[in-house]
């Protein structure tokens, strides 16, 4: 937890500045955020996709909208491009990098 690492949550932000609790390379928040990933396992089903994205994407778009965009395209790259384009259109700030992975054949 952020508090266990000496940080605090203010207005939903770690140390009042970042919405993420895990990070790679964020020197300013190194003591408050963890580089250890949160892991879970689910059963993979046909048609599943995974979307890996930066905070800019997930702050601008709902999970439901991201999922809809991810499965509405014929290729993973076009889905990722659509997600980042819509995030920017919705006023995303910061990094809006996005990767879409199809986990099984469509």
Amount of beta strand = 5-15%
- As laid out across the biggest beta sheet, the strand order is 1-2
The total count of strands amounts to 4
- SSE order: EEEHHHE
Mean pLDDT: 84
* Tally of helical runs: 3
Largest sheet: 2 strands, antiparallel
Helix residue percentage:
25-40%
Distance between the termini: 38 Å
Structural class: alpha+beta
Spans with pLDDT under 50 lasting ≥5 residues? none
Shape: globular
Instruction: Using the CA coordinates, give the radius of gyration.
Output: 16 Å
Describe what you observe in this structure.
The protein is α+β, with helices and mostly antiparallel strands. It contains three helices and four strands. The protein has a two-stranded antiparallel ribbon. The model has no long low-confidence stretch (mean pLDDT 84).
Keywords:
106 residues; 3 helices; alpha+beta; 13% strand; single chain; 4 strands; two-stranded antiparallel ribbon
């Amino acid at each position: 937890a952020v508090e266990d690492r000496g940080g605090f949550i203010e207005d939903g932000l770690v140390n009042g500045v970042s919405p993420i609790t895990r990070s790679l390379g964020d020197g300013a928040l190194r003591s408050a955020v963890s580089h250890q990933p949160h892991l879970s396992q689910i059963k993979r089903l046909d048609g599943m996709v995974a979307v890996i994205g930066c905070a800019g994407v997930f702050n601008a778009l709902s999970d439901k909208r991201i999922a809809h965009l991810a499965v509405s395209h014929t290729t993973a790259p076009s889905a990722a491009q659509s997600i980042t384009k819509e995030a920017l259109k919705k006023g995303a700030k910061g990094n809006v990098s996005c990767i879409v992975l199809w986990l099984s054949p469509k």
